[in-house]
Amino acid sequence: MTQRQVLQVFEQYQKSRLHFVQTVADLATRPQNIDTLQNAGVMTLLRPLLLDAVPTIQQTAALALGRLANHSDDLAEAVVQGDILPQLVHSLASQNRFYKKAAAFVLRAVAKHSPGLALAVVDCGGVDALVLSLEEFDPGVKEAAAWALGYIARHNEQLSQCVVEAGAIPLLVLCLQEPEMALKRISASAISDISKHTTDLAHSVVDSGAIAHLAQMILNPDAKLKRHVLSALSQISKHSVGLAELVVEAEVFPAALACLRDSDDYVRKNVTTLIREVVKHTPELAQFIVNCGGMAAVVDYLGDSSGNVRLPGIMMLGYVAAHTENLAMAVIVAKGVPQLALCLSEEREDHMKAAVAWAIGQIGRHTPEHARAVATANLLPALLQLYLDANSSEDLQVKCKKALKSVLQKCTHLPALEPLLYEAPSNILKHVVCQFSKVLPHDSKARRLFVTSGGLKKMQEMEAEPGSALQEYIIVINNCYPEEIVRYYSPGYSEVLLERAEKFLPE
Amino acid sequence: MAGMLKMRSKIENVEKEYFRRNRLAEENRCAENRAATQIQSWFRACKVRAYLRHLHKKATIIQKIWRGFVARARLRQMVKAAYFIMKMNFYEEMAVRIQRSWRGFYVRKYVHNYYVRKRYLEGLAIKNEQVRKSLDEIEDFQKRERAWLKMTREQAVKTHQARQLHYLLSTKTCPGVFNSPYRPAPHEMELLLRRTKPQPPTRLSPRHRPCPPGQASSPPGASGAHWIKGMEPCCSPSHRLPPISSKKPQGPFREPEEVWRQRLRAPEFSLRLQTPYTLLEEARQEPWRQVDAWSLPDTPFLPFAKAHQRSRKYERLLHSSASTHPLSYGTKHFREEDTHRLKEQQPFQTVFNTCHVFEKFGRLYSKAGNIV
């Protein structure tokens, strides 16, 4: 036995370990192999390899673990149960950058599944270690760490509070300023995940000066970066007036509108969400957006897109219109109402229709002028139909009813109200007839039209309970006409006339 | 004497007559008495009636005078009241006129001016059109830019391919693959091959190859790329560093071991990294680690890394938090709400009396207040 032969054994052992780990890592990329691997006890075998003397084997073992944990909840659970995390966290501080990247990948894969698993990562000090590796020079490590932090912070308020307390935000903001596009994307997304939970978290993000950096990147040509940046801005501004004002003060606004014509669907959606979040706070902010032409841009966006991505745009119109009548008029001037009518007819899903109905209600509830705009777009019969449709969901029905009620109470455009007389159920009919009873006493042309179009006849056929509001309105309308006309149109008048003809005796 | 006798003879007659008359008188006395009483009662009644009539007349006079007095007083009251009402109506009408014009003025000036609103909405429509147009331009520009990028990329791929296939170029004696003699004109590739030069042998990996000419230049019309002032993409493509010359380095080198040691040296930690954050725990766990390095940890982990700091509330920066909030929707008002602030002030003193026009009431002014 020579020395060479002895060493050869070790060399072979090392080679076969490496081969094993690499094969497992390769196999773990395919989802169909996972079950077999798990049954073969891959976890117990990989764990000692994490502590291997050879760095390549360590890294590859970590990579394989990460892929396994990434695949399913159970495997991630198994990683936590197997007490692998403390090792990883421990080595995250001391090993080289490749290993760090792989370890951060494992932590991310574990934390991604559920708040409980993310909590396990936090418990073993993973957040602090990840924050430390954010200080690393290598952009790949930073990216992996930021990604893992973002996945941890995504779940709930406490977890993201942990991330904030570990001092991640200033480092994430530094990462935003790095030249690497991927790192920028990931850190923007992590910032978005952190700030989405509470006002305080969003404030801590803002305090570290993130808005200025985010605002700079709005016109970046990279679409994915824009997605994350815009989502971060919208998550920040959704919490309070002060934060929304800070976002607006960063001069996001005329520039962000350009993103509404981006080729990427999600960029457009996120811009619209940002506009919605800013607009919903105060009339002043809404006025600002309207004045810089945001309304027309959003209305155009509604025309260009279809499906779920329309939702923030529709809600934005509703929020703007809800503030004041002037803003609602601005929605009408930007041709928002025909666009909403189009959305109502095109969209198939109930929640979208409900949002459209809500927005229409907000637009039409201010003055007769607004209600007229809604009525001339032929929206009232459409809303009524949705309200009466048995297939529509309860929420949609409630929203439709509210919208109809609020628009009808202001509407004085009688030609649009007439069709409702024939179709509406009694609880809606009450409001329709009420509007007629308000207008008819003062408008002779309308009175004439009301008779010739058969409205009066329909009114006489209605069965109103004595003493109800409907009865009162009918009486008010009847009082606008001579008695003969009312009698002529009341049902059964022909029989009365014939009876009189029988009783009449010629002299 | 004879007379005497005559008289004597007559005495008897007289006596008879006397008694007869007495009797008659006695007989009639009762009736006469009654008659006299009746006459007297009638007369007295007449007298009393006349007196009563007199009294009635006087009473009527008194009543007439009194009633006239009272009625006149009442009338005066009524007229006064009517005049007062008329005056109040007039005042109110005038007040309405003043309030109407004042409110109109005030509302138009400070609250809601219809024409301003109309102008605003018209301006908004114009602004919307402008925004639509500029967004269309931007979209158009972006589309062109994308098409241009795609084209240049394809061009580069083609050129690369042509370079690699350059050996297929036809020569004078032997036509190449792309220059079939059966074709009327050579293939497009052949023309490309003629135009390109063969790729020089290079050691650089394809990632480090300098980018083809034309890719570095900006697309046509890119000068208008930054359509919104002050918002330029922050990461412009930085200039590439000149390639490191591949000349063989010369000179005295350090020992290979030293170089290796330097290369394998652990990186210098930053200040935070110099003392590991797990220092305390590690020191505490050191003896246990000796005993059983990889046993399950006995102590359960605390729910959070910094559980003791959980109750601390986050304090916002002063400059990023707004202390003033706008009034919530629907609570705007035009009248002064804090009336107590006005309480201390002296009320207005009336220096002049109100107008004296109405002292000659009913004569100069009709009910509506117009001058007759």
Q: Your description of this structure?
A:
The complex is a heterodimer of chains A (507) and B (372). By secondary structure, chain A is mainly α. Chain A is 76% helix and 0% strand. Chain A has 3 domains: 1-208, Leucine-rich Repeat Variant, CATH 1.25.10; 282-411, Alpha Horseshoe (Leucine-rich Repeat Variant); 413-507, no CATH class. Chain B has helices at residues 2-111, 114-164, 188-195, 256-264, 271-274, 279-291, 340-343. Chain B has a domain at 165-198. Chains A and B meet through helix 6, helix 8, helix 9, helix 11 and helix 14 of A and helix 2 of B.
> How large is the count of helical segments of chain B?
7
Measured distance between first and last alpha carbons of chain A: 151 Å
- Mean pLDDT figure of chain B: 77
* CATH architecture label name of the largest domain in chain A: Alpha Horseshoe
Alpha plus pi helix count of chain A: 35
Determine and state the CATH class of the largest domain in chain A.
Mainly Alpha
Number of strands of chain A: 0
Tell me what portion of residues of chain A adopts beta-strand conformation. under 5%
SSE blueprint:
The complex is a heterodimer of chains A (507) and B (372).
Chain A: H1 3-27, H2 34-39, H3 42-50, H4 55-71, H5 73-81, H6 84-94, H7 97-111, H8 115-123, H9 126-133, H10 139-153, H11 157-165, H12 168-176, H13 181-195, H14 199-207, H15 210-216, H16 223-237, H17 241-249, H18 253-256, H19 265-279, H20 283-291, H21 294-304, H22 311-323, H23 325-333, H24 336-346, H25 350-364, H26 368-376, H27 379-388, H28 394-408, H29 414-423, H30 426-439, H31 444-452, H32 455-461, H33 469-478, H34 483-489, H35 493-503
Chain B: H1 2-111, H2 114-164, H3 188-195, H4 256-264, H5 271-274, H6 279-291, H7 340-343
Comma- or semicolon-separated keywords:
heterodimer; A: 507 residues; mainly alpha; Leucine-rich Repeat Variant; 3 domains; B: 372 residues; 53% helix
Short description:
The complex is a heterodimer of chains A (507) and B (372). The N and C termini of chain A lie far apart (151 Å).
